[in-house]
Amino acid sequence: AGMNGTAIENFVxxxxxxxxxxxxxxxxxxxxxxxxxxxxxxxxxxxDITECQxxxxxxxxxxxxxxxxxxxxxxxxxxxxxxxxxxxxxISSISDYIIVEKLTPPLNVSVNCTEASHRCSIWWQPxxxxxxxxxxxxxxxxxxxxx
Length: 147
Hints:
By secondary structure, the protein is mostly beta strands. The chain folds into two domains: 9-101, Immunoglobulins (Immunoglobulin-like, Sandwich); 104-137. Helices cover 0% and strands 40% of the residues. It has no helices and ten strands. It has strands at residues 9-16, 20-26, 36-42, 50-51, 55-57, 63-68, 79-85, 98-101, 107-114, 119-125. A five-stranded mixed β-sheet has the order 5-6-2-1-8, with no helix packed on it. The protein has a three-stranded antiparallel β-sheet with strand order 4-3-7, with no helix packed on it. A two-stranded antiparallel ribbon has the order 9-10. The chain is elongated. It starts with 8 loop residues before the first strand and ends in a 22-residue tail after the last strand.
């Protein structure tokens, strides 16, 4: 429960370099400058809930995001809670969020070309990720340029 327009909007988390995650949001459209938000999360049902320790702030000092380090998400379900405070005002909670992972390039790329057959063989290992364990989940595109 909470007043309309007090919940955060556009909550997005981006995982990068395998173990770092930035979560950002927009403040509710009907809140005042003294409203403050707090982010809690847990990567799985088995783990404890943790509050953000490294908030991103706007010009008014309101929390509009969080930076996490050493992130691992064992499965596709992570759990987030953002609540807020302001005197005499209940803040609505969120129900929708997006998690995106920016992948590193494939690892250990090797190329072997033979002039006689005019063929090249290319090998690589899948990129490191925070939670995808199956290499069959990846699709690759190779661009070959003559130089």
